[in-house]
Write the structure tokens for this entry.
Amino acid sequence: MINAKNLYFKYEDDFVLKNISLEIKEGSFTAIIGANGSGKTTLAKHFNALLMPTKGDVLVDGISTKKDEFNARKNVGFVFQNFEDQLVYSIVEEEIAFGLENLELKNEDINKSVDEILTKLNIKHLAKRNVSTLSLGQKQLVALAGVLAMKPKCIVFDEPTTNLDEKNKKNIMNIIKGLNQKDKITMIVITNLLDDLKYTDDVIVIKNGGVIFNDKKLKLRNKTLKEAVLYD
Amino acid sequence: MIERFTFGQYRSKNSVIHSLDPRIKIIYVVILGILSFTIKSKFEIIVFSLFMLCIVLASKMDLNELIKNLRPFYFIFIFLFIMYLIFSRSQIILGLKYIWRFLMLIIISNLLTYTTTIQNLIAAIEKLSNPLKIFKIKPRNIAIMISVAVRFIPVMFVNFEKTREAMLSRLANFRKIKHIRLLVTLLLEKMFRSASNLSDAMYSRMYNENVESRKIMKLKSCDYLSILVVVLLVLLIY
């Protein structure tokens, strides 16, 4: 699904990402974990073609993001850490339709998709609400709905549980897990919380802009993890 | 703080003015605005004021609420009046006329936002901006700009309140210019960061400036009738 090949990314004078090579398989549920400032979000933004490699390449479904941004953005959705800033329109149903409008779909198809997503995420009652009146958990579901409506093959969540209470944390992680298992959507969760790992199958550990672990969660040693997250 | 700011907010009511096409309403705002600033005689002022009163009543706007909403502007009116009283006492009537004109402008714009949802307003602006395509200006960009501005006004108020409280908790004194400047700088920084995040989010959802509004707008019989009324008003005044 996503391949990074010898990826380097330079910000101002420093390399934020250094020689990253990895593969994210279709249908997998992967966590990218690392301390603050380790380069997790920078890496994830390459999957959605929001950032382009300084050196190396990122392939989405075998196509380089440098050659086809549209392919990357169509196939890889992104739910941002500050999902409050992700919402473009004031009314929930219009917000969800934003991406579909950009795909130039017919009006009937847009309305149908919006309705489907609202039902799927159990937020139909919010359809006519103003986003500024929603709770943080509800806003996050609306941000997810806006991405999900575009039917991406993969969704990247940038620190989805930060700032949420325990109930909302569990709710969002269960929804992500459900979408991965039932709808076979490849899920990538960027996190610095060890707790989030219990939902995922694969783990990529990032330290100082490089990958120090990339395999099944079961093979991950506590020492590696704690070293990356706590002592970066 | 946001709850206190009720001026210009939409109220869902079953009135003739609410049911008018939003494009027509925007055009009326422009026409009535120009009219209010060009009329001179007492007769014209009385006719226009009566017309505005009829529109306010037809929109089912609560007069008490309107008067309450005008409260923040009273200071400007009083200031204008005092300025004329001090510097140009001979032209005090002219000063009163200017105050009346400002009052009319405020009521006209308030009527538009009172009777039209933001979504309809944006769609109407987008439709009305279509001729700008010949200058290579994309109506969708204009609509998105307005939409984002509207969407972020409450966010800005929340950010303002949070930053102000955080500063107050550390004994900031907003009588000091330095602290006001700091508050404004922090607020601007947050807004720029939000704008940067939003632009990333829009690109990630494949923002396409060539898309046209999904809202279908067609003139109805009440719209044609309203055109007749406004034309009659213009003829009566001129």
